Each structure stands twice: as structure tokens, then as C-alpha cells.
TrEMBL record:
InterPro entries: BCAA_transport, Leu-bd, Peripla_BP_I
Name of the molecule in the record: Twin-arginine translocation pathway signal protein
Record's signal peptide: none
Keyword terms of this UniProt record: Signal
Gene3D superfamilies xrefs: 3.40.50.2300
Similarity comment: family membership: Belongs to the leucine-binding protein family.
Sequence ranges assigned to domain Leucine-binding protein in this UniProt record: 5-350
Length: 397
């Protein structure tokens, strides 16, 4: 009997991003079950070995080392905090294993911190900000912005990119504050939102994620800011919307690489099959985190089978430049930076009655703008400029 092929999932089972972590786990296990039922990968059954990062970069790296050194995993994936994904990816590279970022939006992941063994499945801060910037510039031109930003690599990336694409780089006119990460208190968000309320801003960009976003949006609602400003959450997921609820989330604008209603609206059959299977299995709709983890397992399977081996160097070559269609329209693993090139969606939260009309009370997302992948991503020249500024080689090492 062929040896089991082990994959390592490194995700937050606890901490600020645990709900996004749970969705990754469910999507990954569903993919593994389907693949095993169909015969496995190169005739080998797949086993998923999981570890809890707790949202901590050092723990993420230690988990990665343990999964490779002591459990023999052939590939690793996971994330939520970009700092965790970056640290975990470095540990994987040291041991000649691929690491797929499942939920990591900082430009650095496949930019200044990118390397040969890191692949990112979702979009990055640049892509989400470019799509959002296009929509906001058209609909909120000449408006004042106020930024509340998580003080770490993802937050910095998103704010910098969003300011660029909305023309709000003047911090004297478009002010902002940071909140601690990962240990922000409710009082930190309260203080930041009081500054926003005291400003003359028309748009409140809350560059927060997971439980931090949930707490801050609830406070903003209690302060009546929904009636005074357009609230923008640059990276929004279904689990975040569900945690807050439709009454408070109504009208919030954000960006996503995928939403569960997209396949049905656009006619993507494979994506709809995933939505139906996931919904039936778990009695909830899948988020973009679940879709990312599910896609990664299948993309690894595809690359291994095209390469004819699980050897890391061969799988990397099979991935680089590969174009495919899976849960949405065409995507590509770009060769020079290992960023997944894909369409990016701007969404607005629907009214409460529409959200609740869904079988699982989850019809949150109205897709209001789509930016094709080729238009969303950084060019080679822009990517190299970022690498040069960070003192990094101009090719992946």
C-alpha cells in the first residue's frame, strides 16, 4: 500500500482570527475527503496534519518546523496574520518545503519578503486597494478619508496602497491613527473612533481584520458613525460579516477575492458545486478563507500530478506560470513573484432582509465592481522597485 501523503495546515484555532481559521480548516478537510474518495494524489491517500498558530509568528514558524521535521509533511499552507504566514514560509523554505499563504494580504508576503517556496493564493493589499480605489474614486471623489489601521505589516500595506489608489496620501487632510496589534483593547478602538468622529471625514477606512474589525464596527455603530460616514473595510470575509450581523453591517463596503454567491451569479459550475457541497456538509456558507484552503489542496494535487512527483523543486516548476480555472474565472500562479493573479471584487453589504432571505442567513455581498486580475496586480517593474527599496534581490531566492 502506498505511503500516506501528509499536508500541514498551520492556522489560528484561537485568538483574534480564529473564525477565519475555522473556515480554512473546513475547506481543507473537505478537499482532502474528496481527493481521497477519488483515489488520492499519485495513488497516495492524503492526511491533513493541523497545528494552532494562535496568531503568533514565532509559534507559526515552530509549528512549521515540527510538521516537517517530526511529521514528514510534503507541503504546508495556512495563515490569517501576514506576519505568521511570512515567518512560517521562511521556516518551510529552510526545510525545502512549499508554503501556500491561505489568508495573508500584506504586500510583503509575495513582495519584499517573497521567496522561492512561498505561494500566495488570495489577493494582496495592492490588488484589493486598487479595486477599492477605482470604486471609491468614482463614487466618493473629493471626499475626506479617515484611517484606523492595525499596527503591523498587513495594516501598513493596506493603508499605504489604499491611500495611493484613492489619492488620499495627504495625511493632514486625510488623517489616520493606528491601533495596537495583536493586543488591542476595546478602549483603543474607542479612542480611535472618537478621533474619527471629531474629524470632518466622509469615509472611514477601517483597516482591521477578524475580531478587531468586529469590535470596532460595533463601537462605530453605537456611536452613530454609520449615519455620518461611509464605512470601508478593505478586506472583508463572510465570517466577519456574520460575527457583526446584518443590521450593523448594512452598507459597509469592502473587497474580497471570492464570495460564495459569485459562482451562482456568474455561472461558475465548479465553484457552485463547492458552495453546495460545503453548505450541505457544514450547514453554513463558505467564506473566501474556506475557498482558498480548498483551492490550495486541489492546486497542489494538480501540480504534483503534472510534475509526476512530490519533489519540491519539480512542484514549484509545475506551479510557476500555470493558468487554471477552478472556483471562479481564470487564475494564474505568476512565475516571478508567486502571486496568484485573479479578479478582485468590491462588495457592499446588502440590507438585512435580503441577507436573512438566504437559507443560512448569509446573503451579505452585493458585487458592485470587478477588477480583472491583470489590471489588479503590480507589474514586474513595480514589484522590483519594492524589492529594491527593501534591499532584496530582484528575483526570488
Amino acid at each position: 500500500m502506498a505511503e500516506v501523503l501528509k499536508l500541514g495546515l498551520n492556522y489560528p484555532q484561537s485568538g483574534r482570527y480564529q473564525d477565519q481559521g475555522l473556515q480554512q480548516r473546513m475547506g481543507a478537510f473537505l478537499a482532502v475527503e474528496e481527493i481521497n474518495a477519488a483515489g488520492g494524489i499519485l495513488g497516495r491517500q492524503v492526511e491533513l496534519v493541523i497545528r494552532n498558530t494562535r496568531g503568533d509568528p514565532d509559534r507559526g514558524a515552530a509549528n512549521t518546523a515540527d510538521l516537517i521535521d517530526n511529521h514528514g509533511v510534503e507541503m504546508l499552507f495556512g495563515g490569517s496574520s501576514s506576519a505568521v504566514a511570512i515567518a512560517s514560509g521562511r521556516a518551510a523554505k529552510e526545510r525545502d518545503r512549499i508554503y501556500f499563504g491561505t489568508l495573508t494580504y500584506s504586500n510583503a508576503t509575495t513582495g519584499s519578503a517573497g521567496h522561492t517556496h512561498m505561494f500566495r493564493e488570495p489577493f494582496n493589499a495592492w490588488m484589493s486597494a486598487k479595486a477599492l480605489g477605482s470604486y471609491l474614486s468614482e463614487n466618493f471623489s473629493d471626499k475626506n478619508f479617515f484611517y484606523i489601521t492595525a499596527d503591523y505589516t498587513w495594516g501598513w500595506s493596506v493603508e499605504k496602497s489604499l491611500r495611493q489608489f484613492t489619492g488620499t496620501g495627504d495625511t493632514s487632510q486625510h488623517a489616520g491613527v493606528t491601533t495596537p496589534f495583536p493586543n488591542a483593547l476595546t478602549s483603543d478602538f474607542q479612542a480611535a473612533l472618537e478621533e474619527a468622529a471629531a474629524s470632518d471625514a466622509d469615509v472611514l477606512a477601517m483597516v482591521l481584520f477578524g475580531d478587531d474589525m468586529v469590535r470596532a464596527v460595533n463601537i462605530a455603530y453605537s456611536m452613530g458613525l454609520h449615519d455620518k460616514m461611509q464605512i470601508v473595510v478593505p478586506n472583508i470575509t463572510l465570517s466577519m460579516a456574520n460575527q457583526v450581523g446584518p443590521s450593523i453591517m448594512e452598507g459597509v463596503i469592502g473587497a474580497a477575492p471570492w464570495v460564495w454567491n459569485l459562482p451562482g451569479e456568474a455561472g461558475y459550475e465548479r465553484g457552485q458545486t463547492f458552495v453546495d457541497t460545503f453548505s450541505g456538509r457544514y450547514e453554513m456558507r463558505p467564506s473566501s478563507a474556506a475557498a482558498s484552503a480548498y483551492s490550495i489542496v486541489y492546486q497542489y494535487k494538480d501540480a504534483v500530478e503534472r510534475a509526476g512527483t512530490t519533489r519540491t523543486d519539480a512542484v514549484i516548476r509545475a506551479l510557476e506560470g500555470h493558468r487554471y480555472t477552478f472556483l471562479k474565472d481564470e487564475q494564474q500562479w505568476r512565475a516571478f513573484d508567486h502571486q496568484n493573479v485573479q479578479s478582485t471584487y468590491v462588495v457592499r453589504i446588502r440590507p438585512r432582509e435580503q441577507v436573512l432571505a438566504d437559507e443560512f442567513s448569509s446573503d451579505y455581498f452585493e458585487i458592485v465592481h470587478t477588477l480583472p486580475g491583470a489590471e489588479a496586480v503590480r507589474t514586474l517593474e513595480q514589484w522590483q522597485a519594492d524589492r529594491r527599496e527593501a534591499g532584496m534581490p530582484l528575483t526570488l531566492q
